[in-house]
Amino acid sequence: MPDDCHTPANALLSTESATRTPLGPAASRLASQRWWDADAAQYHDAHAEFLGVDSADGEFVWCPEGLHEGDMQFLGDVAGKRVLEVGCGSAPCARWLAGQGAHAVGLDLSRGMLERGVAAMARGGPQVPLVQAGAEALPFTDASFDLACSAFGAVPFVADSAAVMREVARILRPGGRWVFSVNHPLRWIFPDDPGTPGLTATIPYFDRTPYVEVDDTGAAIYVEHHRTIGDRVREIVAAGLVVEDIIEPEWPEMLDREWGQWSPLRGELFPGTAIFITRKP
After folding, report:
1. Strand pairing partners for 212?
2. Cβ(124)–Cβ(151) under 8 Å?
3. To pair with 236 at 20 to 30 A between CA atoms, which of 7, 55, 95, 165?
4. Are the C-beta atoms of residues 121 and 128 closer than 8 Å to each other?
5. Per-residue pLDDT averaged across 69-87, rounded?
6. Residue 193, class by beta-carbon neighbours within 10 Å (0-12 exposed, 13-18 middle, 19+ buried)?
7. CB neighbours of 140 closer than 8 A, spacing ≥ 6?
């Protein structure tokens, strides 16, 4: 069963049990939309400060290990560039990009998450347009963006992640970058626990059956999809993109906070995040 920090969302959606079962794109989209709408307030109670959601200019944090785009420059110089953030949530990353001179647009499936972003922008700072849509069918014309990014926002929750790669490749201009972070595929084999139970491998790495939480009627209300490193690379290449790098952040020595399954205990032993840096030729 999910942890206590999501109790209100679990109660609202009548979360009954967790399982691993096949789930198609339509059911997966509906589950994600229901979950993130219901959990938006609790998610921000737990993570808004770390993500910089309520800071005047937003922030761009790639992962629980704390890598910041201002330091890493994975997207390169964004000034004057059209940038799409896929799965923007409350859009702190898109807002930060706008503050760096980018023409940023945020896209997310969840109205509840987007409304939190609207509330943050109402207090001032950089303003960005927000679009409610799924990542498998981006509502933009071909070659309309110079850059695209996603910080844990969409890819792990999409059943057809190959379609996301194709769509991003379609809307990118030649030479454009697509950078996205996901929970490291290696984490799939361990229980979702930041403590010692999370150090014992229990699930085959090659089992791609999604993790699903269901309500008391058996309907899916939360889903995460697993792909291996090789799967991700093949989806990227099949979309016509080039893999430039795969970043596996090490756990920072002085970072003692936990974020869900991320913890110093686990971070010292194996990676929690994978960041894929790709380019459209």
Report:
1. 19, 223
2. no
3. 95
4. yes
5. 98
6. middle
7. 84, 171
Spatial separation of the C-alpha atoms in residues 258 and 139, rounded to whole Å:
36
pLDDT tens-place string over residues 236-260 = 999 999 999 999 999 999 999 898 8
Q: How, if at all, do strands 15-20 and 211-215 pair?
A: antiparallel
pLDDT at 9 over 70: no
Q: Report residue 184 CA to chain centroid gap.
A: 12
CA distances from 52 to 45, 180, 182 (A): 12, 19, 19
pLDDT by residue (tens digit) across 115-132? 999 999 999 999 999 999
Three-state secondary structure along 223-275? Answer: EECCCCHHHHHHHHHHCCCEEEEEECCCCCCCCCCCECCECHHHHCCCCCEEE
Model pLDDT for residues 181-197, shown as the tens digit of each residue:
999 999 999 999 999 99
Q: How far apart are CA 7 and CA 213, in angstroms?
A: 13
Average pLDDT of the residues of the chain: 94
User: Can you tell me which residue has the tokens 């790639």?
Assistant: 62
Task: Round to whole Å and give the CA distance between 155 and 111.
Answer: 18
Which tokens in the block code for residue 252? 């920072």
Task: Annotate 146-159 with b (16+ C-beta within 10 A) or e (fewer).
Answer: bbbbbbbbbbbbbb
